[in-house]
Amino acid sequence: MSEQTIALVTGANKGIGYEIAAGLGALGWRVGVGARDEERRETAVAKLLAAGADAFGVPLDVTDDASVTDAVRLVEGSSGRLDVLVNNAGITGAAPQLPTSVDPATVRTVVETNVIGVIRVTNAMLPLLRRSPSPRIVNMSSGVGSLTRQTTPGSETGPIAVAYSPSKTFLNAVTVQYAKELQDTNILVNAACPGYCATDLNGFRGVRTPEQGAAIAIRLATLPDDGPTGGFFDDEGEVPW
């Protein structure tokens, strides 16, 4: 089918996910905009198309098996393969998240999206990724997922959040496991730290723009064939686990 590079970005209707889609689209790629909300998804696609990107909407709820299966069929029917998967969809979960008082259901809900959702989508898309000459998987993590930073005195890692922060630590560990299993293939799997970006996840309190946050994902999505795998990176280089 198409020789054009094909990417799917989950949670791409707004924020960092949208900017990742826009950045990949600006490279001339065909980009699937994965999102649950139909109106926001189609608005994002229309905006990308107006900017000259080759974008298409992918209805996708990462917590739902049937939705993910339908997304695979849509991507396969559109392009025949997938070159890059960016697992960006994520939630912070309800507050408060103090470990001594959190509702366990909050933790379960966050992990379902931020970790299990990534596994669900990645495994479903793997057959399409294996058809690519240079497949890449980018998992959008966070600096708050770094245990090194969390335990370094004076390091600013945000509020105590026993659902969100550990979900990103969990995602980092999952990224390593995928890289280990796929080390004898041409699939490169890495985690990205976008920095503290102003998005609706944090009430737009971040100090970086979503476009700045998207840069590391775009870099990892475009790694050369001899690029790293199983790493955790931000704009400055490797992030300590």
Description:
This protein has 241 residues and is of the alpha/beta class. It is 41% helix and 15% strand. The protein contains seven helices and eight strands. An eight-stranded mixed β-sheet has the order 3-2-1-4-5-6-7-8, with helices on both faces. Helix 1 crosses helix 7. It starts with 5 loop residues before the first strand and ends with a strand.
Secondary-structure blueprint:
Blueprint: E1 6-9, H1 15-26, E2 30-35, H2 38-50, E3 54-59, H3 65-79, E4 84-87, H4 104-129, E5 136-140, H5 147-150, H6 164-181, E6 188-192, H7 210-221, E7 232-234, E8 237-238
Parallel strand pairs: 1-2, 1-4, 2-3, 4-5, 5-6, 6-7
Antiparallel strand pairs: 7-8
Radius of gyration computed on alpha carbons: 17 Å
**Helix residue percentage:** 40-55%
Secondary structure: number of strands: 8
Give the DSSP E fraction (strand runs of 2 or more residues). Answer: 5-15%
Poorly predicted parts? none
Q: Secondary-structure element order, as H and E?
A: EHEHEHEHEHHEHEE
Mean pLDDT: 94
Structural classification: alpha/beta
State the helix count: 7
Shape: globular
**CA(first)-CA(last) distance:** 40 Å
- Main sheet attributes: strand count, strand direction, barrel closure: 8 strands, mixed
Give the strand line-up of the largest sheet. 3-2-1-4-5-6-7-8
Write a brief structural summary:
This protein has 7 helices and 8 strands, in the order βαβαβαβαβααβαββ. The protein is of the alpha/beta class and 241 residues long. The mean pLDDT is 94.
What descriptive keywords fit this protein?
241 residues; alpha/beta; globular
